[in-house]
Write a structure and sequence with these properties.
Blueprint: E1 13-15, H1 17-25, E2 29-32, H2 35-38, H3 46-59, E3 63-70, E4 73-76, H4 80-88, E5 93-95, H5 100-106, E6 110-112, H6 114-123, E7 128-130, H7 141-144, H8 149-155, E8 160-163, H9 172-181, E9 185-189, E10 209-210, H10 213-226, E11 232-235, H11 246-263, H12 270-281, H13 285-310, H14 313-321
Parallel strand pairs: 1-4, 2-3, 2-7, 5-6, 7-8, 8-11, 9-10, 9-11
Antiparallel strand pairs: 3-4, 3-6
Helix pairs in contact: 3-4, 3-13, 6-8, 10-13, 10-14, 11-12
The structure holds pseudouridine-5'-monophosphate (PSU) and manganese (II) ion.
């Protein structure tokens, strides 16, 4: 079944003209999630940061497509006013895959997570996606069963996701085990250390390391020729100069997990709660780090999309059969 739909007049999906044009001509496009803008960053700066993330993609030669739900439609690529609404409206819903139908039917504002962004992006033929951190297995998941829908979504969505690993608010080793079980490929970008979001090294090791956008594009091409349906995660560590101080990080993490317990927060509110706690209790240092790593991921995703689009069909074939 062909699930790609690049028709910008589609009933429920509106593709911004620049994105539609790029898709039609095979030019590089990078999808961006919007939950990071609505729920992951303070609302006084998130619209500006959202535009900076888009600019980082543009600077690397690709077309950015921020995904969100507005007025009953899926929007692939947002104009200024729409991005502003997602960033500042207090009523915007965090919409994972299962929430899409309800949010659309109500005509409500919805911000897409990694899971729903990946799902919607591949539906319109976008294969590269940038975010900050993936959702994963939460600490205490043995009792709470709290595992992000991001993991299962990526198990059946053939996109390449550039992220800075997963946050230390999660159970990192358990998340890596689940990624392995689900056959989701994970490669380190210029590192064998799985990045820990605010810090470059989570202490977990990765079996594979790739060192250039071209190498990533070659892997994408082989996977595509095999028809593999799982995601490829490119784990890109935060730039060294932007890393959070390890002591501040560890101390804030312990306090945030305590506060979570005290507040009795559950379900989809857990991740936004922990992110906000970090931002409020580190004098802005976690925010600086968060912005730096997202921009870094957007740039790399742009370069990967450019390298993937530049591969001639013959090169794809020879790599796959070598
Ligand atoms: N991790 C971050 N920042 C974020 C998120 C995760 O560092 O903004 C968001 C992403 O949209 C991700 C979602 O897909 O949270 C995961 O939420 P949950 O754990 O409820 O599945
Ligand atoms: Mn959850």
């Amino acid at each position: 079944m062909d699930t790609h739909d690049t028709d910008d007049t589609d009933d429920i999906v509106t593709i911004e003209p620049a994105v539609a044009a790029a898709l039609a001509s095979g030019s590089p496009v990078v999808a961006l999630e919007s939950t990071i803008i609505s729920h992951g960053l303070p609302s006084d700066s998130s619209a500006r940061i959202g535009r900076e993330i888009e600019a980082a993609v543009t600077e690397s030669g690709a077309v950015p497509a921020t995904v969100a739900l507005l007025d009953g439609r899926v929007r692939i690529g947002l104009d200024e006013a729409s991005l502003e609404r997602i960033a500042t409206d207090q009523a915007v819903a965090k919409a994972s895959i299962r929430d899409l139908g309800v949010v659309l039917a109500r005509g409500a504002l919805g911000a897409t997570t990694v899971a729903s962004t990946a799902y919607l992006a591949q539906r319109v033929g976008i294969t590269v996606f940038a975010t900050g951190g993936l959702g994963g297995v939460h600490r205490g998941a043995r009792e709470s069963w709290d595992e992000s829908a991001d993991l299962l979504a990526l198990a059946s969505t053939p996109v390449t996701v550039v992220c800075a690993g997963v946050k230390s608010i999660l159970d990192v080793p358990a998340t890596l085990e689940r990624l392995e079980t689900l056959s989701i490929a994970v490669v380190g970008y210029r590192t064998h250390a799985f990045p820990g979001f605010y810090v470059r090294d989570s202490a977990a090791r990765l079996p594979w390391r790739l060192d250039s956008p071209r190498q990533v594009a070659a892997v994408i091409a082989c996977r595509s020729r095999l028809g593999q349906q799982q995601a490829l995660i490119v784990a890109n560590p935060i730039p060294e100069r932007s890393e959070m101080d390890r002591e501040l990080h560890d101390h804030t993490l312990a306090a945030a997990l305590d506060a979570l317990d005290q507040a009795g927060v559950e379900g989809r509110d857990v991740t936004p709660f922990l992110l906000a706690y970090f931002h409020e209790h580190t004098a802005g240092r976690s925010l600086t780090a968060n912005v730096a790593l997202v921009l870094n991921n957007a740039r790399l995703a742009g370069h990967i999309a450019v390298a993937a689009a530049a591969r001639p069909a013959s090169a794809r074939r020879s790599t796959a059969t070598r």
